[in-house]
Amino acid sequence: MAQPDKSLDFEFEEVDHQWMRRLEQLQYIEIADCKCLREIIFTKEILEEEEREDVICFPRLNSLRMDCLRNLIFFCSGNYNIEFPLLKELEIEDCPKLEEFISESSTESGMHTLFNEKVAVPSLETMTISKLRNVKMIFL
After folding, report:
1. Which of 14, 33, 98, 123 registers the highest number of CB atoms within 10 A of its CB?
2. Is 131 inside a domain boundary?
3. What is the tally of structural domains in the chain?
4. What is residue 1's predicted lDDT score, i.e. its pLDDT?
5. Nearest CA to 123 among 75, 52, 77, 59?
6. Are 61 and 82 in contact (CB under 8 A)?
7. How far apart are the C-alpha atoms of 63 and 89, rounded to whole Å?
8. Is 2 a member of any domain?
9. Which of 57, 2, 11, 44 is nearest to 30 (CA)?
10. What is a single Pfam family found in this protein's UniProt entry (predicted)?
């Protein structure tokens, strides 16, 4: 019996957003050099589904790397909680337009906070962040 793929690498100029919601077995995600990608999880289609949940969970993910995503603005938009219960390593580099992990997390002052209470990373051990010129605070 074939083992499910536990890693996923994309290095395309265009990426279909639907792949992310159906890959709960992933342990490692690397997204790099996607010039057109503006959002990792495209929630418009999630909203159209009958059974919408308020939590998006990556239960087995232990490493997330996002690099050279020149047009990325959000990881996810909408009023969602995102959980990464086993995430140990997070690397976000050269994403100059990235404002927030979840788009609705802006404070009233307009400060862009990368992570707020809607993002759970209880096992995080290593975080590397560089070249995020729109982010003013890392944690709220």
Report:
1. 98
2. yes
3. 1
4. 46
5. 59
6. no
7. 5
8. no
9. 11
10. LRR_RPS2
